[in-house]
Amino acid sequence: MPFLSASLDRVAPSATVAITGLAQRLRAEGRDVIGLAAGEPDFDTPLHVREAAKDAIDAGRTRYTPVDGIPELKEAIARKFARENGLRYAPSEVTVGTGGKQVLYNALVATLNPGDEVVIPAPYWVSYPDMVRLAGGTPVIVPARAEDGWRITPEALEAAITPRTKWWIFNSPSNPTGAGYDEASLRALTAVVERHPHVWTLSDDMYEHLVYDGFAFRTPAAVAPALRDRTLTVNGVSKAYCMTGWRIGYAGGPETLVAAMRKLQSQSTSNPCSVSQWAALAALEGPQDFLAEHNRAFVRRRDMAVRALNAIPGVACPVPDGAFYVYPTIHGLIGRTSPAGAAITDDEAFATALLDEEGVAVVHGAAFGLSPAFRISYALADEALGEALARMTRFCGALR
């Protein structure tokens, strides 16, 4: 009898976590490595959030809390949804988890049965398909095209829906492409879902506040109120509030679904970190002026990356609407050989050779379901980003 669960055979380790860990190990060994793999802002957590955490510790708020969030945080999340998204949720329709990843996973495990399908646009965040598989479902991948700005079309979504479809996952701005859907594009997609009453929407809004060039963020349940009772709107404080390590995600949705997710969480992690919950409350309710300052830095870095990548023959990089990623394609580099003799047979070989020969860590496109391409995070200091792009340009220029 095998000792390990057969369900683990259906999934792979997170590529982004693995490559980030490899880069850290190489640096510890003395290698000069610049990491462009981690989706993590380089800015510190805002001061008022840190102070709120200290105050919570000093006040003794370090004990168990309700399973899926303290009432004060749930009420703040409900106010946030109303204020910023035009969505009305009672606290009983709000759940708080240990990061957005747990919230997504809870929703899938609480709802999927064998044979259920989940439609996932590609390029996708690396964890979506594997979470579906772990929950017993079947991911159905819908490829987007670079010429469409990495956005799927309503026709492609319609074609992917079957009687077995339970969810479709929507992520705007996207990880890994930074592509956003404007209101007209989103209305066209939600119109498809409205025609299929058995299909629910899982909206991952984690990059809501990281948008540029006047892009107006919209979320499906606000654009299509008819979908409100079959939509789970997921968000968190990790990216916009520079709180990746604090591990607080949240969602609003129908009370029956939220109750099922709470039941699941009660038998897994129980409550998220108590101190982090009070810090998240301060993040949502406190000053927001730092967001504009951070976004100005991200726009500068985005433009630096897009300009450098598009200047490399064989590479094409669309301009993203938000997040802090770019997703260039490398059709023109496949089949060539690196200066050290590595064959660039696919995007994973490209990423491996780039790390080995130039000390630049990126994530290969196959991990996101669409090749040949790669993802870089430009959420690092301008000088380090500039050096990484210079190394990448040198590496690509030396391919033969």
From TrEMBL:
Q: Which Pfam families match?
A: Aminotran_1_2
Q: List residues of the Aminotransferase class I/classII large domain.
A: 32-391
Signal sequence interval, chain numbering: none
Cofactor(s) annotated in UniProt:
pyridoxal 5'-phosphate
**Class in the EC hierarchy, top level:** transferase
One GO term in the molecular function aspect is: L-aspartate:2-oxoglutarate aminotransferase activity
> Has UniProt tagged this entry with the keyword Transferase?
yes
Q: Which GO terms describe its biological process?
A: amino acid metabolic process
Q: What is its EC number?
A: 2.6.1.1
What does the UniProt keyword field contain? Aminotransferase, Pyridoxal phosphate, Transferase
Query: What InterPro entries does the record tag this protein with?
Result: Aminotransferase_I/II_large, AspAT/PAT-like, PyrdxlP-dep_Trfase, PyrdxlP-dep_Trfase_major, PyrdxlP-dep_Trfase_small
Lipid biosynthesis: present as a keyword of the record? no
The catalysed reaction is:
L-aspartate + 2-oxoglutarate = oxaloacetate + L-glutamate
| Description of how the protein assembles with itself and partners | Homodimer.
Q: Which family does it belong to?
A: Belongs to the class-I pyridoxal-phosphate-dependent aminotransferase family.
Q: What is this protein called?
A: aspartate transaminase
Q: What is the organism of origin for this protein?
A: Hasllibacter halocynthiae
Q: What is the lineage of its organism?
A: Bacteria, Pseudomonadati, Pseudomonadota, Alphaproteobacteria, Rhodobacterales
